[in-house]
Amino acid sequence: MNCTEETDFHLSAFSLPLDLSLVLFFGILLMYLVSVSGNLVIIGLVYTISQLHTPMYYFLCNLSIQDIIYVSATLPKFLSVTISGDTRILFPECITQMFFFTFCVGTEFFLLAFMAYDRYVAICVPLRYTTIMNPKLCFVFCFIAWCVGFCNSFTHAILVSNLFFCHSQEISHFYCDLKTMIELSSSDVTNIETMVSVECLFLGVIPFLLTLASYIYIIVTILNIQSSAGRLKAFSSCSSHLTILILFYGPSLSSYLIPRSKHSEEQNKTLSLLYTALVPTLNPLVYSLRNKQVWKAVDLLMERYGKC
Between helices 55-84 and 135-161, what is the axis angle to 10°? Predict the structure, then answer.
């Protein structure tokens, strides 16, 4: 019986005919390029334009960095598997991919929660906004998000790297998913499964409840605004973030809440593809296409380089 700590795995991605595989390849490639380039543009604009040196764009810059790491950890290998048909992935490569993926997911949950708090302060207590959302607090929030994400994923990477895999090395996914890896192991994974359940509560549910609480206060405040123009202005200031929340939380929570079964495997892969490829692609588009400040920053940058 092949029982080893370190072995090669095989990614069982989407079973598609050649023509559909090519469509999938070019579609994912396009999303990857748009995601990386779009988020780099956001980072460049926030760094260059002083008008964007605000808490919201500070968080957005961190979100863009996280998105670039996020897509780069999973999509290049997925593209390679799709176009070459070589599904093999080395054990260290698999652990590294799992580390960066869980790192980014944990970080994003907290970044989105802190961005929701930023919108709460801006709408509900606007007169104290600059006092509360000072640079020190913004730095602390981002440090917490990155630190929690790193500690969580590093712990999982160490634990999974010490597991044995005796029965199967076929991962029914297009990346090294933590839950799938645990299910494949022939070691006693009771402690790891318990820890994953606890951390799902801490890293997923708690930030979600904090975000939900922020938006309940936001909605109540907006409804109490007398003028329709005032309500529209207040809502527009948080509409981009709210859109990203729905895009991220919908597919990601659904993929973890749906019970595992043979019928749900393909559905789980599709949901994972949505928040792995589509959401990081839409993030910079949502914040650029729906945000006048970003367009003004682009105009200022073009004027600056035009004069040069």
Answer: 30
